[in-house]
Write a structure and sequence with these properties.
Layout lengths: L4 E5 L10 E6 L3 E8 L2 E6 L13 H5 L5 E12 L2 E2 L1 H6 L5 H10 L2 E11 L2 E2 L5 H11 L7 E3 L6 H10 L7 E6 L9 E7 L2 E12 L6 E9 L5 E6 L5 H11 L8 H5 L4 H6 L7 E3 L5 E6 L2 E2 L3 E2 L4 E5 L21 H4 L5
Parallel strand pairs: 1-11, 7-9
Antiparallel strand pairs: 2-10, 3-4, 3-5, 5-6, 5-7, 7-8, 10-11, 12-13, 12-15, 12-16, 13-14, 16-19, 17-18
């Protein structure tokens, strides 16, 4: 079953009214936890069985004290500064020995925010307010690594969470209709995520999957030592824009030196994702563009594809540094779980 989804809204458009409920938006793996007669199965949003990668969650799920339940939530990994999505991604490893080592070194947690079925009863048609009561009752005695996400009915409190919880690595806020049923696969919730802008050096472009035209721009920023680092790429463009961009970029073609590739995070393999190096094309670092992004992950690269906004012909490439990236005030992750609606 595909989980219920959320449609994106701009940061300044958080819905308000008596029909809304708000929750923190966790930066993890969306997961449905199935417990059936002692058997635990973790299923990703893409229908992938994730159970073997997170063995430390199996016994805590069994300890919930019920025979059958389906929970909706997120698997997260906490680091010294809050949520650590890099560490979470590394947990998906083919070697069983490595999986066990990582389970001890970077243990995961499960944050529940909905209950879909309980002891043979299908709860999808029940309104969220009733499902929330069932969820709170079920998890009343649960202990880490199983957590219950907090919620609020106040848009003002949700706005405070939006700003404060980013310091613990959270993405933003989810708004849900308090009276709505659970509708799998439908974007009937709303998500309000952080978004900022940055001026980046264009390092080159990725070819599309057919290798015939431009797919996205490769972006870079300078560190304090004057080294240019690859930080991510833009989202794709329409056909007409791709043609215009190729005309603009073709005269600047240049293959980066080994030294240049070595000082960019991940080097060549990160650029090409393990494929042939012809999947991307480097250019002289002379152009600057402004992009919108959500988060600079681990202080090194954009968490998702950035959105191209405009060219900055008024800005020099050397002025595009990491210093323009905002760092939110630190916030204690565990204190979020103590919040009650």
């Amino acid at each position: 079953m595909e989980p219920m989804l959320a449609a994106p809204l701009p940061p300044g458009q958080m819905p308000d009214g008596e029909q809304w409920e708000y929750e923190p938006k966790w930066d993890g793996f969306r997961t449905l936890v199935h417990l059936e007669k002692g058997r635990v199965t973790l299923v990703s949003r893409g229908q992938r069985d994730m159970t073997r990668y997170f063995p430390e969650l199996i016994e805590p799920a069994r300890a919930l004290g019920v025979g059958q339940v389906v929970l909706d939530g997120e698997i997260i990994v906490a680091g010294p500064s809050g949520l650590d999505f890099d560490a979470l991604q590394q947990r998906i490893h083919p070697a069983e020995s490595r999986v066990r080592t990582l389970a001890e070194r970077t243990p995961s947690r499960f944050v529940a925010f909905d209950v879909i079925a309980l002891e043979g009863e299908d709860l999808r048609k029940e309104p969220l307010n009733r499902r929330r009561v069932r969820l709170e009752t079920l998890l009343a005695s649960a202990r880490p690594p199983i957590h219950l996400t907090p919620y609020t009915r106040s848009a003002a409190v949700a706005a405070e969470w939006f700003n404060q919880f980013e310091g613990a690595g959270l993405d933003g806020v989810i708004a849900k209709s308090w009276d709505s049923p659970y509708v799998p696969g439908k974007r009937l919730w709303a998500k309000i995520k952080h978004q900022r802008t940055a001026d980046c050096v264009v390092l080159g472009w990725r070819w599309d999957k057919y290798g015939k035209t431009l797919g996205s721009l490769l972006l870079g920023l300078y560190d304090d030592g004057g080294n240019l680092h690859y930080v991510g790429h833009t989202s794709s463009f329409d056909a007409a824009t791709r043609k215009e961009l190729l005309k603009k970029l073709e005269p600047l073609r240049q293959e980066p030196t080994a030294e240049e590739m070595g000082r960019r995070p991940g080097g060549l393999s990160r650029w090409s994702r393990g494929r042939d190096s012809m999947d991307w094309q480097g250019i002289r670092p002379e152009l600057v563009c402004e992009v919108a992004y959500e988060k600079l992950q681990s202080g090194e690269r954009f968490r998702h594809a950035a959105r191209f906004l405009r060219w900055r012909v008024d800005k020099k490439p050397g002025d595009c540094g990491f210093d323009q990236v905002e760092s939110p005030a630190a916030f204690d992750l565990d204190s979020i779980f103590a919040v009650r609606g």
